[in-house]
Specification:
Blueprint lengths: L22 E2 L23 E5 L2 E5 L9 E3 L2 E3 L9 E5 L2 E5 L9 E5 L2 E5 L9 E3 L2 E3 L9 E5 L4 E5 L9 E3 L2 E3 L9 E5 L4 E5 L8 E5 L2 E5 L5 E5 L18 E6 L9 E2 L2 E2 H18 L3 E4 L12 H7 L5 E8 L12 E6 L17 H22 L3 E7 L2 H4 L5 E8 L3 H7 L2 H20 L1
Parallel strand pairs: 1-8, 21-24, 21-25, 25-28, 26-27
Antiparallel strand pairs: 2-3, 4-5, 6-7, 8-9, 10-11, 12-13, 14-15, 16-17, 18-19, 19-20, 22-23, 26-28
Helix pairs in contact: 1-6, 3-6
Length: 443
């Protein structure tokens, strides 16, 4: 339906509505308005124009040429030359002198392939709306771009004709009536005959998502499916939220014959174990009990074995540690942190967790855990937010407790690779995960 963005942009008021401006374009056949100017060759000139070496001058009744001043919609430079086909900066404002010499006033002009508008005094309009159009700081009309208007605290998208988009999608974002970008709200799209929910960043959500305390399910294209209502009390579940034991199951991804991603001399299996061991030490120092799927470089089957190990414990949660890669080679342009929770799908049935894999309470608490950890890790690392997402990964599907999978950075991004291999940055990752876990228990 829509492709994901990357975003800078601006906003428009719902009350902004007007007909399209009548644009004026300056022609190069020039000086039609100069027909009234008379070339004078007498030595004494008063109240008259004079042309010298192709430049025009005007002499007042004292016989002095006008200099660095406006007069009758013209502007004269310090040397007395009339401005023509050029920008003028005077009195902290920009003006434009057309080829005829007269200033652009109360009109739209196209200059160097950009549209500009000038008021009745000839002043260039900037940083403001003109009907359904936005004038940027340079004065150029915004086209094919996002604009953020601080006055309205909203993003707007300006189309190829300069008008703000409304009642339509732009990639993963929805522009409402008036051009405002939807966020933290439901939107009904009649063309899809479906409801969508736009999160605080304006992106439509997919998979499982908690909204106002209720868990909802969405398709991969963002269309709402249904509200998932809890139909099992917590004490019937393999985990009891009311009786947590502060036991955490950590799963360092890959291991042994499975190296995971490999870039710039690093193997994912080594990174995941390093971070998991540091995380275990930190959690234990705070009084938590930590169980790990592996503590050395050994292979553990990821389809069911890791989940089976966790399911047989009294752990309150399952956290799988991974690092990312695009598979497109070095410096593919992707970086940041992703957090995954489970997305039930009929295409991939559960093997050992048929009863609990799509249990609404498990899904709700998995999302809660993932959300807290995701935001905390972003805060401690200042990394790019690459998404709080949902997929049917095996370790999330086959685990009968709240479960999340963390992708803590891209190994095939050279800058991020330099960070994630350092003890200092790994400690920031650990601190973020711990803070997220603490928030989960406390809320």
């Amino acid at each position: 339906m829509k492709k994901r963005l990357f975003l800078s942009t601006l906003l428009v008021s719902a009350c902004l509505c007007a007909s399209a401006p009548i644009f004026a374009q300056e022609t190069t056949d020039a000086k039609q308005e100069l027909t009234s100017k008379v070339a004078v060759s007498t030595s004494t000139i008063k109240n008259q124009w004079k042309q010298v070496d192709g430049a025009w001058y005007y002499y007042n009744e004292q016989g002095e040429s006008l200099k660095q001043t406006f007069w009758n919609s013209y502007y004269f430079h310090k040397d007395g030359k009339m401005a023509s086909s050029e920008w003028i900066f005077e009195n902290n404002h920009w003006y434009y002198a057309k080829s005829s010499g007269t200033l652009a006033q109360n009109e739209w002009m196209t200059i160097n392939q950009h549209w500009y508008i000038f008021n009745a005094q000839g002043i260039l309009l900037t940083n403001q709306w003109k009907d359904a159009y936005y004038l940027k700081p340079s004065g150029a009309m915004a086209e094919n771009e996002w604009i953020f208007d601080a006055t309205y605290q909203s993003w707007f998208y300006l189309t190829s004709n300069g008008r703000f988009a409304q009642n339509t999608w732009k990639d993963d974002y929805y522009l409402k009536s008036g051009g405002y970008m939807a966020k933290n709200e439901w939107v009904y799209d009649s063309s899809y005959q479906a409801w969508f929910y736009l999160d605080r960043n304006g992106l439509y959500v997919t998979g499982s998502h908690i909204i106002n305390g209720a868990l909802h399910s969405f398709k991969e294209n963002g269309a709402w499916i249904r509200e998932i209502k809890e139909n099992t009390v917590s004490n019937e579940l393999p985990f009891a939220t009311s009786n947590y034991q502060k036991v955490i199951f950590l799963d360092p991804g890959h291991g042994g014959k499975d190296p995971g991603a490999q870039y710039l001399g690093l193997k994912e299996k080594d990174l995941t174990l390093q971070v998991s061991q540091q995380l275990k030490t930190k959690l234990e120092s705070l009084g938590y009990t930590v169980i790990m799927s592996r503590s050395t470089d050994v292979f553990v089957d990821f389809v069911t074995e890791r989940s089976k190990m966790s399911n047989e414990t009294n752990a309150d949660m399952f956290i799988s540690i991974h690092f990312n890669a695009t598979g497109h080679g070095l410096d593919s342009g992707e970086d940041g942190i992703q957090t995954y929770t489970y997305l039930p799908t009929g295409n991939i049935p559960s093997v050992i967790n048929k009863k609990w894999h799509d249990n609404p309470t498990r899904l709700k608490y998995s999302y809660k855990l993932g959300s807290y950890i995701h935001q905390s890790v972003l805060a401690t690392t200042q990394a790019k937010d690459a998404g709080l997402l949902a997929k049917s990964f095996a370790v999330l599907r086959e685990t009968n407790k709240p479960a999340v999978l963390l992708e803590l950075g891209y190994m095939d991004d050279s800058k991020e690779s330099q960070k994630i291999r350092t003890k200092e940055y790994q400690q920031k990752l650990v601190d973020g995960i711990v803070q997220g876990i603490q928030q989960y228990y406390n809320n």
